[in-house]
Amino acid sequence: MYEKKRGKDSFWYPFIRELDRQRGRGQLAVESPLLWSKKELEYLEGSPMKEVVSARLEGIRREYNELDTVWFMAGSLFQQYPFDIPTEAFTFDIFKQAFVAVQSCVVHLQNVPLARRFALVPLGPPLLAYKSTCKAMLKSNGDAVQLQVDRPYKVGDAIVVWCGPQANARLLLNYGFVDEDNPYDRLSVEVSLNTSDPLYQAKRLVAQRNNLLAIQAFQIYRGKERETVLNMLPYLRLGHVTEDEDMQSILSSEGPVCGVSPCRERAVLDQLESYFTTCIAKYPTSLSDDLKMLEDSSTPPKRRVATQLLKLEKEILHNCLAVVRELLDQLPSSTPVPCSGPYVPTLR
Q: Domain Rubisco LSMT substrate-binding: where (predicted)?
């Protein structure tokens, strides 16, 4: 921001001018949702992405509020800038635009120490297109980042680069695009044991014994919905245990997290069915509505990329719901009514 105030006197003037022109826009000509208007953010209604954007904006606001402290405590960093303190020299909106411009240049490097995991590639967004499935990638080479291509290029060819193992929500937030073929796309379901449960400490101990947490996040990858739902079931069965005798039996065993009983199994599956149904109902549009929106050539770019994200999220949720309903149908018709207790785990 200080260099921008120096205008053409800045060594970085041509680069900053290019960043201003790009405004963090990705290959679909869409800027990060961090710069969308309130009305445009409504395109994300029903999606966890809306909460992610809100949380990131709050974080940027905190960074902005701390700028003056940094300016006073590390004054030597700013000696060449004869301007006012940051929050007097720049508004929050200007800082947010600068933050997004820099964020769009961050790349995620592989096979390097954690301290060198992220790098800035300033001309990345204007010159490259990102794809989740291609083999060309940006790699660390000493103190530089080098583009290693996967095929010969001719003048005028678009350069497509692997963008790292990032979910579509992250790609949209950082780079302004969604990749429909992204094998790393996923939704997260957080399951929490009920802290009011008299058996909470015992359940937490069993969870830890099985390398799980009292608040456990399950990542649902597209195409692997069945696998994830089946992985969630033992944890949910544990959360639904109500009898101390059952809990003692689980504690003394060395087998799976929790055994299966017919009534508990129906309670667990009913809870999952209710959760996925509720998640789907939060979206104001259906999958068919999304497909029509994407087929319409007049759909604005931001609305289009938001619809792509929502469609992919709904497909994951619908697939999970189908798995749960299939498991419910497999229960014997004589299965007793669900035996849910007052301290069932929470899902969010």
A: 195-317
Count other C-beta atoms under 10 Å from residue 214's C-beta.
17
The CA-based angle 153-157-162, given to 5 degrees, is 75
Structure tokens at 128: 């490259």
* Residue 127 φ then ψ, to 5°: -105, -20
45-53: Cβ within 8 A, 24+ apart? 45/282, 45/283, 45/284, 46/282, 46/283, 46/284, 46/310, 47/169, 47/283, 47/309, 47/310, 47/313, 48/169, 48/187, 48/188, 48/313, 49/169, 49/172, 49/173, 49/309, 52/169, 52/173, 53/173
Residue 323 tokens, joined: 């798995």
Residue pLDDT, tens place only, 49-72? 999 999 999 999 999 999 999 888
Percent of the chain with pLDDT over 90: 53
Residues shown for the chain: 348
pTM of the predicted model, to two decimals?
A: 0.89
Question: Can you read off the two tokens belonging to residue 80?
Answer: 């060449």
Convert the pLDDT of each residue in 159-189 to its tens digit.
Answer: 888 888 899 999 999 888 999 999 999 999 9
| Residue 331 contacts residue 225 (beta carbons within 8 Å) | no
How far apart are alpha carbons 82 and 102 in whole angstroms? 23
